[in-house]
Amino acid sequence: xDNGGPQQQQxxxxxxxxxxxxPAMMRLYEVQKEVASLGPQVCTFSGLQNDRDxxxxxxxxxxxxxxxxxxxxxxKPELQGARKRAAQEVEGLLRYxxxxxxxxxxxxxxxxxxxxxALVDDRVVAPQRAGGVAEINDELVDALQGLILxxxxxxxxxxxxxxxxxxxxxxxxxxxxxxxxxxTQQQTLSLxxxxxxxxxxxxxxxxxxxxxxxxxxxxxxxxxxxxxDSCAHLSRLLTEMQVELDALDVSGNAxxxxxxxxxxxxxxxxxxxxxxxxxxxxxxxYDLAQNNSIREIEAVRAHVVHLREGILRHCAVGDLSFRxxxxxxxxxxxxxxxxxxxxxxxxxxxxRAVVEVQAVITFLDLREALARRQPGxxxxxxxxxxxxxxxxxxxxxxxxxxxxxxxxxxxxMMLEELLTKQLLALDAVDPHGDEMTKVARxxxxxxxxxxLNYLDMKTDEWEY
Length: 464
Prior knowledge:
- By secondary structure, this protein is an all-alpha fold.
- The protein folds into four domains: 23-102, BAG domain (Methane Monooxygenase Hydroxylase, Chain G, domain 1), CATH 1.20.58; 197-276, Up-down Bundle (Methane Monooxygenase Hydroxylase, Chain G, domain 1); 289-372, Methane Monooxygenase Hydroxylase, Chain G, domain 1, CATH 1.20.58; 373-463, Up-down Bundle (Methane Monooxygenase Hydroxylase, Chain G, domain 1).
- It has helices spanning 5-15, 23-44, 52-69, 77-101, 104-129, 138-152, 160-187, 199-222, 231-246, 254-271, 283-286, 292-316, 325-336, 344-372, 381-402, 410-427, 435-458.
């Protein structure tokens, strides 16, 4: 009996699933294992294209892609499908690796890091290497703070590699700021003591000199400006300094004990930063969505939204009886107690939450003031004009509080234009020398600017 001839037989072979022991399938399985081991490394790589690890990962993935391409599928659809899926997986990792290393936000992080590196090298590291004194002052501290703020505003789109890169840059800059600010405070003290005071003082002074050198070494390490030293080596040096101080006999002299304690504390302050070589490898550190402080802040923000919506509903019908100011004040107290752990992103998140609470409180305060207002016949016309603008600002603030759009929205542009018009109206008010009107106009201008700033904050798409 004819079973359909060679063509049907070949078709049946193509439809039949291939045994996992088939050489082509075995090779694809091996490739998939290697891809599975490289995947986590690619997904957390936070460097640039010229980094050694980038080149290694790119080389490994390219090799796997070539190996997949060389798998002989014998023209079988099932093998072809398996090879295609394996190739797509490798190509996806290569694409993800390149996208993150060349992402505009990643380049922005690198630019800010380079700016910080040049600043620190010029003001701290280079002078110390030349045998001079580091130029540490308020100007340097402010410049570092400005760079930290810019880093917190870099958008990561939720990408783990970008979050990691931003976190690592921030931790280093914050550590340097901490070291620099600590040094600034030290310069204001009347220490070190004279060597004649006690035989141990001379040795403490010697350690103090070593600490000063170690401080500059640490700053250089954190900013990648030291090619020879390592954090482990610096940690050993600092620990040896502690041991040397602990061995000193300073009994019976409180002033010297305090001096030694001060130097030990400065050493401890440096030691807490020397482990930053591996800082950021733990995703819990830079995935702030899982941070307990952020969760606290988010819970407060959710509560504020609930209260704000209730206030706006009551105000829409002219009901001013719902005034949860005590509850809002308690939320401010709660936010003040949130532990930011000196993390600039958490600090910024808390600051923004505070602004949200304060915006609702000022809205309630102005509404109450407008409701209580009873102008007399002798009121200065310019003072009355300021209050008319405040009434308009209160209505606009209600719209700003309820706004939930983006800067490209027409409603945003309309609100911005109307608020600007109110500022112009205040600018046109002539107090005619009336002091009360001058004060009222100044407060109204500040109020209008705060509403504009709040609207701007609500739409700047900031992220943790």
